[in-house]
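Exercise 7. Given the components listed, write out the predicted structure of the assembled complex. Treat all entries as one system.
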Amino acid sequence: MNINWQHRELNLKVVYYGPALSGKTTNLEQIYKRVNPNQRSELVSLKTHEDRTLFFDFLQLELGKIGGLTPKIHLYTVPGQSYYEASRRLVLRGTDGVVFVVDSSVSRLNDNVAAWKDMYSHLRSFGFDPDKMPIVVQFNKQDLPDALNPLAIKNLLHTNGKPVVNAVAVRGEGVLDTLKLITRAVMTNVQREIA
Amino acid sequence: MSDFLSSSQGSAINVDADRPSLVLRTGITLYPDHERALDTLLEQLVERCPAPFALMADSSGQLISYKGERGKHDLIALASLVAGDLAASQEIARLTGELQASHLILREGPKYNSFIADAGENLILFVQTARETPLGWARLLIQYTGRQAVNIIKTVPAQVEEINLEINKDNLSDLIGDALDDLWIG
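Answer.
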């Protein structure tokens, strides 16, 4: 987070985290497609030859003025594959909030739990308290025939009252709601950061 | 502690007389004085090096300032990539037991050399120099600039303008919802 009083800008960082192929990049692609081009940057993607995220995807959104400040939200994704753990940790550095993207398929249950624990551990390694950090949980791929119901996922991950959103990101469903919730949570947290 | 969301009237902020208002507990707070001083510092770097282009970002990849020929650089993307590059390089150094207090990456190009250097924990410099510019000279200036930048942001200006934010707990959700709805064209 940084505040620039000269330009009245509030810069915030939000990271989309989750297991491989859960839909993190899809969220950013949908946001990129669906927001006013004058208020977003280009989508930067560092990908492998197989089109999988290698390091991160990045997109900046510029909101209209809120209380005299222009919030600029920097959205990042992490690479989901297990062997990119070191890169995932780096992307979390300096984050102001996290969207955890769950793959709702019952076959990905263990991957979700592993990624959730991994996220907690990395946040703690940076001195963040994951229970105080703004985190929104997106239950993606709710259209799958074997999708777990949201209550089951909540119990599985112990989301502890964190805001949740049902989504089918590939169709854009739940993408804006997720973005609204995390932005609200991060902005609310700003007041605690100001001394 | 100042609570800029607490007043329904959006009152001016300055609660504690001993300290200026609106200082973030984490991250960086840039006041106009900081901005001017950092701009001057970058300008001096560009002139003395000489460097066709220099950029300053924070460690999470947010652009703070730049000087020189912008050309076709996408500055927002560049700032995020510079931060990612430095973070990856620092992690490589950590894993191989070579991590040190300050870190500098040199990338030699056909026309320009590019330096990426940390400036304390929170700032990053990206500087392009001509191939003919001696590497040692550029390195010296970049590291000096980094140290000066750290000193600048460490200092809180004595005179801080009071900020009146028209925001409160009750309307925050609506304001954010409206701002994102305006952004969304579906």
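Discussion: Chain B touches chain A through 57 residues (CB under 8 Å). Residues 75-95 of chain B form the longest helix (21 residues).
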